Amino acid sequence: EAVAVADGKIAAVGSTEEILDWISEETEVIDLDGKLLMPAFVDSHMHPAMSAVPYFFEIQLRGEFSVEGYLKRIQDFADENPDLEFYSGGGFQRSVFDETGPRKEDLDAIISDKPMALDSVDGHSIWVNSRTLEMAGITKETPDPPGGVIKRDPVSGEPSGLLSESARGAVQDLFPPPKKEQYKQGLLKLQEMLNSVGLTSCHDAIVKYDPDYYNAYEDLAREGLLTVRYRGSWHITPEMVGGGEGQPEDFKPEMTIDEAVKKGVEISKSFKTPYWQVKSFKFFADQVIEEETGYLKETYVHRDDNWRGIRVWKQEAINEAFRLIDAEGFNIHTHQIGDAAAEYALDAIEYAVAENGVRDSRHTLAHVQMIEQKDSERMAELGMTAVIAPYWSVIDDYYWKLYHPYLGADRAYSKQYPAASLIRAGINTAFHSDFYVTDPDYGWALYSAVTRTQPEKIFRMEQGESADSTLRTTDYSVKLDSGQIGPLGPEEECMSIEEAVAAATINGAKADFLEKETGSIEIGKSADIIVVDRNIFKVDIEEVSEMKVLMTFFEGKNVFSAEC
Question: Which runs of E-coded beta strand occur in 285-433?
Fold first, then answer.
């Protein structure tokens, strides 16, 4: 019924009468009028600094769901900023376009004499104009790089304007990265949004080896300006250290894997506050199914070349990398989409544990879009965490335009985004938004975790307020036609509301070894708590998606209050 907070910690939990004994003349008393008090949320995989700059200061395509809408936003930004030397930003949905993807000609019609590059909302592809391709030296004769795809016009064979995975590298080098002050400004604006949805702890899943990047966090932490507790993972790629599948034998990396690990470990020692710590390393085992780069055990059914996607690392290279990281006592945080990616990533984790011995390592697979049961069991045996996004475990436009045709009906419907089965296997299962892939919204997350269906409010946002209600159902007994919005199978993967709340709070804290500090309302823990407008454990599930955060407290300080 009530909680007492003192010196930023939870001092007492009990009935209203019991907590009344804590009240003195100096005590601030907040009457919640029956509203629900619960732990603040934890996002176990997102990209705060990387996303904040384009989200707030560059071309922003999020919230639009048509090519026409994208082009209008781009044109408006260009008109408002005619003197820029280059144009960047992003947020486009891959499902808006056909298989070839967005076209350079559409951007050329707006800006043709300066480079323009726009990231997809998931960050796995980039849409560029002809000037950018020219500056990068990408032509019809340019081969796909190892681990990447240059999308081409199906008739002419010319680059069409979409570059996926490692093919983005040549283009990204043309655009200078943000400076530290830009990152800091972005993080300060972003934390207002994060606090407003009840977030006080987040994991940055790609920490760059860039002093401007990591010191933006460190500066804000030392200045006492952070109202979010951040943990992070150093990002290591084959382009940095070699060892990539398909890389030329004579490839010259920037450094060895041993040097990269030692560099990350040493820099981490310089972070002196509890608000910014990097105790993990990030690897990509594969990429994403929507770009045909997720690494699968069976082929992509719409292709006739036995294509199974992209495997990022050679086994011996990732084995050695994971061994070195595990030996340092750091966590391994692996992007894993396809079932084949899960298998070889877990082989590498097992190798590291066999070499170094068992410890409480809590290594992580992030996304876990497809995984075989035997590999789920291996995760449990290894004491791992699965970080999943309930936002995506639905039948929506992505499903019909990309997953259904690429995977086939059975795999698309019944083999994607396990949830409850991970919990049953004994895996610590936590939620993430992958911002800025998805804006964190815990009414949405909890609703979709329990129903595996897109909430009505998201359906209306994407399809329009006047969309036919019969296009959406939450009923598993209804056989869906192409284009209909509904629940993703199997129904046994639906979580309970209690399991979903745990995944959004204490399980996320456990993933980053923070369960003694935050994630639940217990005496001695940080007073990271929120007030929401309804009792999500008692109301109908349809009401959960409309949940609003009214107040957010971080270490006992009120860092967000909704306008009433």
Answer: 331-336, 364-367, 385-388, 394-395, 428-431
Instruction: Assess contact for 114 and 85: CB atoms under 8 A.
Output: yes
| Alpha-carbon gap, residue 517 to 506, rounded angstroms | 10
Give me the CATH code for the 87-172 domain, please: 3.10.310.70
What residues does each domain of the chain span? 2-39+512-561, 87-172, 180-488
Q: Render pLDDT for 2-52 as a digit per residue (tens, 0 to 9).
A: 899 999 999 999 888 888 888 887 888 888 888 999 999 999 999 999 999
Tell me how crowded residue 377 is: count the other CB atoms within 10 A of its CB: 13
Distance of CA 86 to the CA centre of its chain: 27
Tell me the β-bridge partners of 207: 234
Asked if the model's pLDDT at residue 235 lies above 80, the reply is: yes
What's the token pair of residue 197?
């949805």
Cβ neighbors of 105 (< 8 A, separation 6 or more) are 130, 161
Residue 255, number of CB atoms within 10 A of its CB: 15
Cβ atoms of 532 and 550 closer than 8 Å: yes
Q: How far apart are CA 335 and CA 338, in angstroms?
A: 10
H/E run at residue 486:
strand 486-487
Residue 218: its H or E element: helix 211-222
Ramachandran angles phi, psi of 365, nearest 5°: -105, 130
What is the pTM for the complete model shown? 0.92
**Residue type at position 134:** E
User: What would the pLDDT profile of 462-471 be if each residue is shown by its tens digit?
Assistant: 888 888 888 9
Between 509 and 398, where is the model more confident? 509
Return the amino acid letter for 24.
Answer: S
pLDDT at 146: 87
Domain 180-488 has CATH 3.20.20.140: yes
* CA-based nearest residue to 483, from 467, 494, 497: 467
Cα–Cα distance measured from residue 56 to residue 186, given in angstroms and rounded to the nearest whole number: 7
**3-class DSSP state for residue 200?**
strand
Average pLDDT over residues 238-259: 95
Q: Are strands 557-561 and 549-554 parallel, antiparallel or unpaired?
A: antiparallel
Residue pair 545/457 in contact (Cβ under 8 Å)? The answer is: yes
2-39+512-561 CATH fold: Urease, subunit C; domain 1 (2.30.40)
DSSP-assigned states of every residue in 465-476: TT--GGGB---T
Q: Which residues contact 271 (CB under 8 A, 6 or more apart)?
A: 214, 217, 218, 221, 277, 278
CA angle 78, 80, 86 (to 5 degrees): 40
Stretch 453-466: mean pLDDT, rounded? 92
What one-character DSSP code corresponds to residue 11?
E
Give the single-character DSSP code of 289.
G
Q: Do domains 2-39+512-561 and 180-488 have the same CATH topology?
A: no
Region of residue 510 (left: phi > 0; alpha: psi -120 to 50; beta: else):
alpha
Question: The tokens of 295 are what?
Answer: 């690494």
Specify whether the CB–CB gap between 161 and 102 falls below 8 A: yes
